[in-house]
Amino acid sequence: MKVLFVRFSSLGDIILTTGVIRKFKELFPDAQADVLTYAPFAEVYKGLPFVNRVLSYDKKDGIIAYFSLIQKEAEEYDHIFDLHGKLLSMFLRFHAQADYHKYMKDSAARRRFVKTGKRDPRLDIHVVQKYFEPVAETFNVPMPELEELRPVLASKAEPVKGHILVHPFASKYTKTYPFAGELAELLLQNGYTPVFVGDGKAPDVDGIINKTGKTTIRELFDNIAACEKVISTDSGPLHIATALGRPTVAVFGSTTKDFGFYPSFGGVRVVEDNSVSCRPCHVHGQDACPKGHFDCMMHLTPEKVLEALS
Predict the structure, then answer these.
(1) Closest C-alpha among 305, 60, 75 to residue 192
(2) CA distance 135 to 131
(3) Which candidate, 18, 85, 149, 224, has a CA 20 to 30 Å from the CA of 244?
(4) CA torsion 174→175→179→183, rounded to 10°?
(5) Alpha carbon of 226 to those of 123, 144, 219, 265: distances in Å?
(6) What is the DSSP letter of 69?
(7) Domain 2-149 is of which CATH architecture?
(8) SS3 (DSSP) at 63
């Protein structure tokens, strides 16, 4: 049996597919499990023994190159599991001979919850379980426990004693941590060495290790693996740390567990303020606090983060 798992982006979402594929191979060890993703994210699957082959598409090559890739490579699969649900992946439904299966995003339920506060039972399901649902339904296997679907990555880097990875950045302002400098100083005072990574400006604090800026995905993996513990916002590095098994403090501002990406895995503690009534204000976070106070993050002091780290 040949199976293709499809997820094009983004980094965190792709990392969360890895535990699903691992569980599939555990159940069907003789199956061939391949993945299709954007070229920059092919590195996520490198070194994972349960992934047989990675098909990658570079958007810079244009849509004709994608059609050519599908014609050449996607005709011999028995099953295709679309874990993205975008037009590019749904194209496979009509242009491959395989049985096509798509996961349920529940996008409308999430938007409705933000707008009206009305909960749908689907919001209680973690995204890795949603990824596994079409597998369970297709092969009539039970839904695994959440920890069995924990993401996994490969890195040879070993943790350096006292090094704490800090990622205070995010794609949206309301998911960023506003006390990065104060947190760095507090960590230093407590004998830790903060290592900053990500696309953002590290605080101007003597004693930190600054690895912010453009790095390869592999370098990011190794930087995180080389730290004893991790502090991260709701972003890609949070899922990297979870997949690498590093004890992690997840700092959640405007987003909540209702969106399915909550790090409910062993070794992860979440710092958040559930008393802020306007959380969540948006499914993906926003470029500015719509209320102007940013209480969802401003209440999360460095002392609270340090307490969760210990």
Answers:
(1) 305
(2) 8
(3) 85
(4) 170
(5) 34, 30, 10, 20
(6) H
(7) 3-Layer(aba) Sandwich (3.40)
(8) helix
Place of tokens 């919001």: 123
What is the C-alpha separation between 208 and 234, in angstroms, rounded?
22
Splitting the chain (310 residues) into consecutive groups of 10 residues, what average pLDDT does each group show? Answer: 97 97 98 97 97 96 93 91 94 88 94 92 96 98 98 97 98 97 98 97 97 91 98 97 98 95 96 96 94 97 97
User: Could you give the CA distance from residue 77 to residue 74 in angstroms, rounded to a whole number?
Assistant: 6
Quick one: tokens of 90? 């749904």
CA distances from 147 to 242, 263, 265 (A): 11, 10, 6
Q: What is the CATH number of domain 162-309?
A: 3.40.50.2000
DSSP 131-154: HHHHHHHHHT-PPPPGGGG-----
**In whole angstroms, how large is the CA radius of gyration of the chain?**
20
What would the two tokens of residue 233 be? 């916002």
Residue 167 tokens, joined: 């990622």
Give the rounded distance of the alpha carbon of 187 from its chain centre.
25
The amino acid sitting at 129 is Q
Helix segments in the chain, DSSP class H: 11-15, 18-27, 63-73, 87-90, 92-95, 107-116, 127-139, 180-189, 217-225, 236-244, 295-298, 302-309
Q: How many CA atoms lie within 13 A of 201 on its CB side?
A: 3
pTM for the structure as a whole: 0.95
Q: How far apart are CA 228 and CA 51, in angstroms?
A: 27
Task: Spell out the domain ranges in the chain.
Answer: 2-149, 162-309
Q: Residue 10: beta bridge partners?
A: none
* Cα separation, 155 vs 218, whole angstroms: 8
Q: Is the distance from CB of 33 to CB of 3 less than 8 angstroms?
A: yes
